[in-house]
């Protein structure tokens, strides 16, 4: 009897192990099937009459798309987000569609579906349920709102409906996705602000600690930092050319080139000029202008303007620009006897190119022919810009009163 019981127990345990093994195999095959059901990224946009779906799948073969009055089924094999795989999805629409007039087009890297609505109306969402699948995205390039139907020209949601655009982005990816251009401009303006703030802070701290004795050592202490930030300013000539900022590139070209001419040719190349007090005052003036200008640009990029910062940007130049131009003129004027003595950058005859160039004469011409007219042009430009920026606010306040 005990042997029989033992044999029965052994057989029962064996059956239980086999049942568990079968259950594990079924779960593994089911999970494998679920993992293999991949969906491509689908971007949608709408008008009052139709829905547009852009399916990101390259070389889709064989392709199966079935439109029903309430849904669409898709299945194809191609190159998607997970490489070469079989992708499929099922969308149950918010409202009914006209399945007979709906169609699709196949391209090399995508598939476009044109889905006709059964009636003219704007849908609050694409899918029937409030929760949308993670692979369904908004096609911002084609996105339109109900207000656009009243306009003859299509409008850009990024500019004309920036609040709606930010809301859709938050719903789509959980945060506001900034363009590469915006991110670059934020980092550039912030970096330049930190650079000039560093220069101004070092000069102020050293002067507070050591007094006027530190003035001849200004270039020695912050000269390298000033050269770095001034070289970076050449990017500001490219910004309007590539559409990163508005305005005429000739204005930053004249300003940046003039500053670097004074910094690298008049100060860097002449050691006797580096210890002059005028360099101390020039660096302070440049830094004061920029620690206000770059934060103003930074707030403009992120669309958070500050009234006080705007007023400072277009007011502080009135005393500082003439003082900076005066310091630059003094540096050039003081350098004329130095360059006449050393003949630096001058080319005398005879030479193999049969060419002559006198640096001292060039400095005199530059001082009279470029500094003075250029200063007038720059000051006139800033005065007009100030009238536009601050004049509008005054008019708005008067109308509100």
From TrEMBL:
<feature type="domain" description="CS">
    <location>
        <begin position="37"/>
        <end position="127"/>
    </location>
</feature>
<keyword id="KW-0256">Endoplasmic reticulum</keyword>
<feature type="transmembrane region" description="Helical">
    <location>
        <begin position="357"/>
        <end position="379"/>
    </location>
</feature>
<keyword id="KW-0472">Membrane</keyword>
<comment type="pathway">
    <text>Lipid metabolism; fatty acid biosynthesis.</text>
</comment>
<dbReference type="GO" id="GO:0030497">
    <property type="term" value="P:fatty acid elongation"/>
</dbReference>
<comment type="function">
    <text>Catalyzes the third of the four reactions of the long-chain fatty acids elongation cycle. This endoplasmic reticulum-bound enzymatic process, allows the addition of two carbons to the chain of long- and very long-chain fatty acids/VLCFAs per cycle. This enzyme catalyzes the dehydration of the 3-hydroxyacyl-CoA intermediate into trans-2,3-enoyl-CoA, within each cycle of fatty acid elongation. Thereby, it participates to the production of VLCFAs of different chain lengths that are involved in multiple biological processes as precursors of membrane lipids and lipid mediators.</text>
</comment>
<keyword id="KW-0276">Fatty acid metabolism</keyword>
<keyword id="KW-0443">Lipid metabolism</keyword>
<dbReference type="GO" id="GO:0102158">
    <property type="term" value="F:very-long-chain (3R)-3-hydroxyacyl-CoA dehydratase activity"/>
</dbReference>
<keyword id="KW-0456">Lyase</keyword>
<keyword id="KW-0175">Coiled coil</keyword>
<keyword id="KW-1133">Transmembrane helix</keyword>
<keyword id="KW-0444">Lipid biosynthesis</keyword>
<comment type="similarity">
    <text>Belongs to the very long-chain fatty acids dehydratase HACD family.</text>
</comment>
<keyword id="KW-0812">Transmembrane</keyword>
<feature type="transmembrane region" description="Helical">
    <location>
        <begin position="186"/>
        <end position="208"/>
    </location>
</feature>
<dbReference type="Pfam" id="PF04387">
    <property type="entry name" value="PTPLA"/>
</dbReference>
<dbReference type="GO" id="GO:0030148">
    <property type="term" value="P:sphingolipid biosynthetic process"/>
</dbReference>
<comment type="similarity">
    <text>Belongs to the p23/wos2 family.</text>
</comment>
<dbReference type="InterPro" id="IPR007482">
    <property type="entry name" value="Tyr_Pase-like_PTPLA"/>
</dbReference>
<dbReference type="InterPro" id="IPR007052">
    <property type="entry name" value="CS_dom"/>
</dbReference>
<feature type="transmembrane region" description="Helical">
    <location>
        <begin position="279"/>
        <end position="296"/>
    </location>
</feature>
<dbReference type="GO" id="GO:0042761">
    <property type="term" value="P:very long-chain fatty acid biosynthetic process"/>
</dbReference>
<dbReference type="GO" id="GO:0005789">
    <property type="term" value="C:endoplasmic reticulum membrane"/>
</dbReference>
<dbReference type="Pfam" id="PF04969">
    <property type="entry name" value="CS"/>
</dbReference>
<feature type="transmembrane region" description="Helical">
    <location>
        <begin position="316"/>
        <end position="336"/>
    </location>
</feature>
<protein>
    <recommendedName>
        <fullName>Very-long-chain (3R)-3-hydroxyacyl-CoA dehydratase</fullName>
        <ecNumber>4.2.1.134</ecNumber>
    </recommendedName>
</protein>
<dbReference type="InterPro" id="IPR008978">
    <property type="entry name" value="HSP20-like_chaperone"/>
</dbReference>
<keyword id="KW-0275">Fatty acid biosynthesis</keyword>
């Amino acid at each position: 009897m005990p042997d029989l019981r033992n044999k029965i127990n052994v057989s029962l345990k064996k059956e239980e192990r086999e049942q568990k093994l079968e259950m594990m195999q079924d779960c593994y095959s089911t999970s494998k099937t679920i993992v293999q059901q991949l969906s491509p990224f689908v971007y949608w946009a709408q008008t009052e009459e139709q829905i547009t779906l852009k399916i990101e799948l390259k070389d889709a073969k064989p392709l199966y798309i079935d439109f029903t009055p309430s849904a669409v089924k898709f299945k194809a094999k191609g190159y998607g987000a997970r490489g070469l795989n079989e992708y499929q999805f099922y969308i149950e629409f918010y409202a009914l569609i006209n399945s007979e007039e709906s169609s699709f087009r196949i391209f090399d890297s995508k598939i476009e579906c044109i889905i006709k609505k059964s009636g003219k109306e704007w849908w609050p969402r694409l899918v029937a349920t409030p929760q949308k699948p993670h692979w369904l995205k908004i096609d911002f390039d084609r996105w339109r709102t109900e207000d656009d139907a009243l306009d003859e020209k299509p409008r850009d949601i990024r500019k004309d409906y920036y609040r709606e655009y930010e809301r859709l982005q938050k719903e789509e990816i959980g945060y506001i996705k900034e363009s590469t251009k915006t991110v670059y401009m934020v980092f550039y303006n912030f970096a330049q602000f930190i650079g000039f703030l560093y220069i101004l802070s070092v000069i102020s701290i050293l002067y507070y600690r050591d007094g006027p004795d530190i003035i001849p050592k200004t270039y020695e202490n912050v000269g390298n930092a000033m050269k770095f930030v001034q070289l970076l300013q050449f990017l500001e000539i490219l910004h309007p050319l590539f559409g990163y900022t508005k305005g005429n590139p000739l204005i930053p070209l004249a300003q940046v080139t003039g500053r670097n001419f004074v910094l690298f040719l008049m100060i860097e190349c002449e050691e006797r000029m580096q210890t002059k007090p005028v360099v101390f005052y020039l660096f302070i003036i440049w830094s004061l202008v920029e620690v206000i200008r770059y934060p103003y640009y930074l707030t403009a990029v992120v669309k958070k303007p500050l009234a006080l910062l705007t007023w400072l940007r277009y007011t502080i130049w009135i005393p500082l620009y003439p003082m900076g131009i005066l310091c630059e003129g003094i540096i050039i004027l003081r350098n004329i006897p130095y360059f006449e003595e050393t003949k630096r950058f001058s080319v005398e005859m005879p030479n193999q190119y049969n060419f002559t160039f006198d640096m001292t004469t060039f400095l005199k011409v530059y001082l009279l022919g470029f500094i003075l007219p250029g200063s007038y042009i720059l000051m006139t430009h800033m005065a007009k810009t100030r009238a536009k920026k601050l004049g509008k606010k005054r008019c708005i306040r008067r109308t509100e009163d």
